[in-house]
Amino acid sequence: MQRGCKRFIVGDIGPETDWRDALEEVDEVIHLAARVHVMNDDPAESLEKFREVNVEGTRRLAECATAAGAKRFIFMSSIKVNGEETNTEKRRDKNSANISKEEDDPHPVDAYGMSKWEAEKILREIETKSGMEVTILRSPLIYGPGVKANFLKLIQLVDKGIPLPFGRIQNRRSFLGLTNLVDLICCCLEHPAAAGETFMASDGEDVSTPELLNRIAYALEKPCRMLPIPKSVIMLGGALTGKSGQIKRLCGSLQIDSSKVRRVLSWSPPCTMTEELAKTIKWYREEQAKRGT
Questions:
Q1: Residue 9: in which H helix or E strand, if any?
Q2: Spatial distance between the Cα atoms of 264 and 218, rounded to a whole number of angstroms
Q3: CB within 10 Å: which end of the chain, N or C, has fewer?
Q4: Is 261 part of any domain?
Q5: Among candidates 272, 148, 162, 292, which has minimal Cα distance to 219?
Q6: 141 phi/psi in degrees, rounded to 5
Q7: Domain count, the chain
Q8: Cα distance between the two ends of the chain
Q9: Of 49, 70, 255, which Cα lies nearest the Cα of 172?
Q10: Distance CA 253, CA 277 (A)
Q11: CA 35, CA 53: separation in Å to the nearest integer?
């Protein structure tokens, strides 16, 4: 495995990207780049834009990797391949736990999830034809230093002491800390049993939205103010403000079963959620200090 610190600028990722210099003498490829968090797309064009980067860009990189002689390819996929939420009514066994597993039928519902599922299928085809070992990781929301989007907004709202309407929400969601993700990727690079596998992974500490907010508040050393608003009222507010998707994620459940990766790779998360949140808030405070806020 090449462990140098060379950096290459390849430009936009897509079906024509030139990867030759970046892949020279590379044995393993970790593909983390993707088109994400795009909220203002024209719905008629959204899927094609995601496909250009997440599907055709991935195809291009994988084909170039095989041509360069790479032996293993780690692909960062998403739990969104399985769907936006866990629901026992959608499972064949109604008595089983309300948790997504690798063997569940894919059920992507948005352009991002669809593009990730299509990319997974293409990688399996390339793996079969070329012999390059492919490992796919489907993760829930990843947090840690540098986190953006909704997770950062939650930190900012708690930090400002703004009352949040989630006091009566009783959901359960899985998360994956950045430290744990990096550790898992390193394990997948070196463990022979990772070849050809699809894994789901999490911190193993599924929490409700109120519990997450309380943990963030604890790390911030701030009080957490939550109002006991009924879920139906919160969802209505999301619909009226055009934020139904964001509100649904905060109120709904999305749990994953990470027992396979623990069993097959003998992997366990080295960092607890409390520890990762402490790192996240330390980074957040440092960024505030830089901006003078």
A1: none
A2: 35
A3: C
A4: no
A5: 272
A6: -60, 130
A7: 1
A8: 42
A9: 255
A10: 20
A11: 6
> Cα–Cα distance between 260 and 200 in angstroms, integer?
8
CATH of the domain at 115: 3.40.50.720
Q: What domain range is 14 assigned to?
A: 1-138
Give the distance, in angstroms, between the CA of residue 46 and the centroid of all CA atoms in the same chain: 19
Span 173-209, pLDDT tens digits: 999 999 999 999 999 999 999 999 999 999 999 999 9
Q: Give the pLDDT of residue 86.
A: 84
* Annotation marks residue 143 as catalytic: no
Say if 32 falls within a structural domain. Answer: yes
DSSP per residue, 158-189: HHTT--BS-TT----B-EEEHHHHHHHHHHHH
According to the model, what pLDDT value does residue 87 have? 61
Distance CA 74, CA 188 (A): 8
26-49 burial, b at 16+ Cβ within 10 Å, e below that, comes to bebbbbeebbeeeeeeeeeebbee
95 in a structural domain: yes
pLDDT at 96: 46
141-143/28-31 β-pairing? unpaired
Kindly state whether residue 110 falls inside one of the protein's structural domains.
yes
Q: What is the pTM of this model?
A: 0.91
Q: What is the pLDDT of residues 6-60, one digit of tens each?
A: 888 999 999 999 999 999 999 999 999 999 876 565 655 688 999 999 999 999 9
Q: Which of 112, 143, 218, 284 is catalytic?
A: 112
pLDDT digits (tens, 9 = 90+) for 253-284: 999 999 999 999 999 999 999 999 999 999 99
Beta-bridged to residue 134, according to DSSP, are: 73
Residue indicated by tokens 């409700």: 208
Residue 135 has pLDDT above 90, yes or no: yes
